[in-house]
Specification:
Elements (H helix, E strand, L loop, with lengths): L61 H11 L6 H4 L35 E7 L8 E8 L7 E8 L7 E4 L5 E7 L6 E8 L2 E8 L2
Antiparallel strand pairs: 1-2, 2-5, 3-4, 3-6, 6-7
């Protein structure tokens, strides 16, 4: 959702102290003014008093100030927070909906720390020659900061080893395979931390 009109904090509509290189310098576009909101982003309220499954579409982040001001009987800082709802719509202070905390879901706790992300799996030539050799290239999104193990699989199976390593300081590795005969396509899948990325080529 794009920005929409909001109460400005005071009589100043636009920034007056921006450097000349700033994107909003000397521009009167509404997105540079103090009288519009920012782009819509999520806000999650966590408390024993929050209503279960409650969703609001009326709050911007300045309402957090309004909640604090309401709770502690403080004066408003600006006209902007004074105009906000005080967020009490999120809460049920009488019945305490989460007096008993929810039961956490089961989580896998023995997985390795994943610091890298596999970006692409490519196979060349394309198409791959049936019964001939092809090269598989596995690429990271950036250079690895540690040796990174990539689990491998293929369809049909048995074409690639169980895993390969991309060495620290590099962003890719290659391996040579033999494309099986009697198939029309070949898929190679690599995964880091259980997140798969695949590449598929026809086989001729």
């Amino acid at each position: 959702m794009p920005p929409h009109l909001a109460t400005p904090p005071d009589s100043i509509e636009y920034p007056t102290d921006l450097p000349s290189t700033d994107i909003c310098a000397n521009i009167t576009s509404p997105v540079c003014g103090f009288f519009v909101t920012g782009f819509r982003v999520p806000l999650i309220v966590i408390s024993p008093f929050t209503k279960k499954n409650y969703v609001s579409h009326t709050v911007d982040y300045t309402a957090i100030l309004k909640l604090i001001e309401t709770r502690f009987k403080l004066p408003n800082l600006t006209a902007r927070d004074a105009a906000q709802p005080n967020m009490t719509e999120f809460f049920d202070f009488a019945n305490v909906p989460w007096a008993t905390p929810p039961t956490p879901t089961n989580q896998v706790k023995n997985m390795a720390c994943v610091l890298e992300a596999l970006n692409a799996v490519t196979i060349s030539p394309n198409p791959a020659p049936a019964g001939g050799q092809a090269t598989v290239t596995l690429s990271l999104a950036k250079s690895a900061i540690q040796d990174t193990n990539i689990s491998l699989s293929s369809n049909p199976s048995g074409v690639v080893p169980p895993s390969v390593v991309i060495a620290s300081g590099t962003s890719s590795t290659t391996l040579t395979i033999t494309a099986p005969t009697g198939i029309t396509s070949l898929t190679i899948t690599g995964s880091i931390g259980g997140i798969p990325v695949s590449g598929t080529v026809p086989v001729q």
